[in-house]
Amino acid sequence: SRPILIAPSILSADFARLGDEVRAIGAAGADWVHFDVMDGHFVPNISIGSGVLKAIRPHTTLPIDVHLMIAPVDFYLDAFAQAGADRISVHVEAGPHIHRTVQRIRDLGCKAGVVLNPGTPAKMLDYLIDDVDMVVVMTVNPGFGGQSFITSQLRKIEAVRRMIDKTGREIHLQVDGGIDAETAPLAIAAGADVLVAGTATFRGGPDAYAGNIAAMRGPV
Ligand code: DX5
Ligand code: ZN
After folding, report:
1. Residues with CB under 5 A from ligand 2 (ion)
2. How far apart (Å, rounded) are the C-alpha atoms in residues 10 and 22?
3. Residue 188 belongs to what domain range?
4. Separation between Cα atoms, residue 40 and residue 12, nearest integer Å
5. What is the reported pLDDT for 60?
6. Which one of 71, 117, 187, 201 is separated from 149 by 20 to 30 angstroms, measured CA to CA?
7. Residue 36 appears among annotated catalytic residues
8. HEC string of 175-193?
9. Does residue 67 line the site of ligand 1, with CB under 6 A?
10. Is 176 a catalytic residue?
């Protein structure tokens, strides 16, 4: 079985102490830092941008996984790459030139991910999958932390896993939204290997992070 990576979403961290928070999740066994960017336009909420990314970058050696929920997106890619993103994921719904956007992310030296909203079918990947490093299946409608896992997406995770395996390439399959110790095993069984979790990582404060992360990763 494939190794399971945990990517805490700092959307649920204490924004007044973000440097401490990314250090704490690193010490607690997190694999990546998931950085949610929302523009109040593509999604009905506003979060954090490249200035905040630049500020936390010196506080962690973990890869920073930037999830851009913004449209249009292309103009902002350089700023996130320069601020220290290792990976950048963009929504297939966010613009008409997703393939060009993915190429640009790779030209900037970052790993490229494409994200599917809950209402978007897996077949949107047909002409993208050969050029991406990760596929993200949203298991909530993006915009807010703390929502419930949408179980209909398990079928999509299974379909995307089949598509990835057919390529023969190493492509991560990330799930984002409503992941906790109960839903993590469902996502893993359906084929996911990277779990994003905000609420379920940060609940209980810093002393709880290691236990929270271990509970989602499951038996090693
Ligand atoms: C949803 C974001 C997620 C979210 C996850 O819009 O992309 O990364 O913060 O939060 P939880 O784990 O609380 O569902
Ligand atoms: Zn996210």
Report:
1. 36, 67, 176
2. 8
3. 5-217
4. 18
5. 98
6. 71
7. yes
8. EECCCCCCCHHHHHHHCCC
9. yes
10. yes
Please check if 172 is assigned to a binding site: no
Catalytically annotated residue among 31, 36, 39, 133: 36
132-182 residue pLDDT tens = 999 999 999 999 999 999 999 999 999 999 999 999 999 999 999 999 999
The average pLDDT across 4-29 equals 98
Specify the pLDDT at position 182: 98
**The two three-digit tokens of residue 57, written as one number:** 């970058």
Alpha carbon distance 1, 62 (integer Å): 23
Percentage of the chain exceeding pLDDT 70: 100
Asked whether the beta carbons of 157 and 190 are under 8 A apart, the reply is yes
Please report the pLDDT score of residue 220 as a whole number: 73
Angle CA 168–99–84, to nearest 5: 85
Q: Are 146 and 139 in contact (CB under 8 A)?
A: no
CATH no. for residue 146? Answer: 3.20.20.70
* b/e code 7-28 from CB counts within 10 Å (16+ = b): bbbbbbbeeeebeebbbbbbeb
Q: Is 47 a residue whose pLDDT tops 80?
A: yes
**CB-ligand 1 contact for 140 (6 Å cutoff):** yes
| pTM for the model | 0.98
Q: How many domains does the chain contain in total? A: 1
Q: Is 218 labeled as ligand-binding?
A: no
Of 31, 51, 48, which Cα lies nearest the Cα of 40? Answer: 48
Average pLDDT rounded to a whole number, residues 186-210: 98
* CA–CA separation, 86 and 6 (whole Å): 16
